[in-house]
Amino acid sequence: MQNNANWSRKMTNADPEFFSNLEKMQQPKYLWIGCSDSRVPANQVVDLPPGAVFVHRNIANVVAHSDFNCLSVMQYAVQMLKVQHIIVCGHYGCGGVAAALEDQQLGLIDNWLRHVRDVHHKHFNVLNKKLFPLSEKKKLDLLCELNVIESVKNVCHTTIVQSAWARNQPLSVHGWIYRLNNGIVQDLGVTISSPEDISQVYRTNEEDSNVEMSADEELQLLPSGEEEKVGVADGQK
Ligand SMILES: [Zn+2]
């Protein structure tokens, strides 16, 4: 409580209108979907003040199609606040992702981390190379990256995002990862800004629904090769 009183006084001293302006409305440009980890606070990581970022956080920055909490946050952010960027930000050394790599049961949370286990299963071959096996740390780092990338895709596959694109509302979805030991955010280079960037099977815009798949798009549905493109931040560690 004392911290709060000190902070409120400090902010008011710096700008007497700060809280009265914030009270009137919020116009954030960004929706942040991140991990609940106490070391990755959204506003501080990108050095933005209150009012600048709409935030949803959960363990391991999972975006699941059946999670109405996350979907509701996304809908409000996109339709009402008209954010222009959705940022999925994971972090290296994520405890949730690490737990999903382990064999032991932790209880209720195992049901949530099942989403991360599914990412592991989907990319099993690249994470468990027989010829040049990854160290445990590299494997965890790579799964942290892949988990962000899958969440980015899941955001784009929602009707919320696709309806925004159909309305020509500018909206980009980004995948970032944060490094705990230096505070640096890295862009994973998977930004998606239009339905053309996602697979045909996930496009829900009515105009598209009867379009036949092109050969290129059919090839994109095949699992082979996809694993080789991921891990884009690997070389920069
Ligand atoms: Zn985490």
UniProtKB/TrEMBL annotation:
Binding site for Zn(2+): C35, D37, H91, C94
Entries under SMART domains matching the protein: Pro_CA
Cofactor descriptive note: Binds 1 zinc ion per subunit.
One Pfam family in the UniProt entry: Pro_CA
A GO biological process held by the record: carbon utilization
Positions of the UniProt region annotated as Disordered: 218-237
UniProtKB keywords: Lyase, Metal-binding, Zinc
Protein purpose: Reversible hydration of carbon dioxide.
Protein name (Swiss-Prot/TrEMBL): Carbonic anhydrase
